[in-house]
């Protein structure tokens, strides 16, 4: 009996050691590339764990809130709180700190608009981050513009990417991609978190993409509560986009102002908007892109004349089978349909950066 107890104890100890060993944190943390200048934290290690610090000597508890999970942080004798997350997927993530029940940005991070607020962001390194790196290549420009909107009685903001060489004295005209953000994001999301301009600069420099203009504006998606998304009415934004923004862009930039040279794509809720608008107005766009934003069926596109491309994508941790089967069904029906699955990512910006990188190489060929 004594021997059995000793063996049982040994087994328990082995399991305990195994669990502790597997849970040990690799201490090779490095500052995130999207930190405030001079800030050593937040940091990321080779496992994708995020570690942050904040000085809050009077706080009773502090948590790191990332990926829908809150991780308790530990205070030292000086009042400095430190804590880290479980491994995160590669790419960009929004996060915040919770101090005594109040959710606040981490002062060590740059601020980004996402999750319906300005807050913190972290970049978990990936093997393919070269696709959006700022390289020694010719760069385009991102213009902040305001266009009149009679339907909303406001001047609305948009960002317009023009490719390298656009500003030279030339009469060259360019195709246009209208690119939409997701729910609880805005027109800053693609040029900042998405790094759309660097993705395009690099592709153009490599000769992999036709130079084109990208227009990014607010999709009016945040004006309804999350629980009411199914009741979202696309008509007000469709009016802003089709009847107000597109004519303004065509009048103020050197565009090829016709359906053949106009595309629309979006991520998540922006993909949902893209799907609805392209189904309502097939006369306006000839290239469609849904990034984690649903799929098309062949019967929906039966009367879409001059449709050049249908691109659908998602992360491998989402519902890739649905995207792949939808593309297969469209191909069988005779459409130029392409599916793309971002390996190892979910409903997050690296999925959508990769999606833009893939779709951009197919546009306006």
Topology (elements, then pairings):
Elements: H1 2-23, E1 30-31, E2 43-44, E3 50-55, E4 62-66, E5 69-72, E6 74-75, E7 80-84, E8 91-99, E9 102-104, E10 111-114, E11 117-124, E12 141-149, E13 154-162, E14 176-180, H2 189-192, H3 196-205, E15 213-217, H4 235-252, E16 262-267, H5 269-280, E17 287-291, E18 309-315, H6 320-332, E19 337-342, H7 349-360
Parallel strand pairs: 14-15, 14-16, 16-17, 17-18, 18-19
Antiparallel strand pairs: 1-2, 2-3, 3-7, 4-5, 4-8, 6-7, 8-9, 8-11, 10-11, 12-13, 13-15
Helix pairs in contact: 3-7
Keywords: Signal
GO molecular function: acyltransferase activity, transferring groups other than amino-acyl groups
Signal peptide: 1-23
Highlighted features:
365 residues; alpha+beta; Rossmann fold; eight-stranded mixed beta sheet; six-stranded antiparallel beta sheet; globular
Task: Describe, in short, the structure shown.
The chain is α+β, with helices and mostly antiparallel strands. 25% of the residues lie in helices and 28% in strands. The longest helix is centred in the N-terminal third of the chain and has 22 residues, at 2-23.
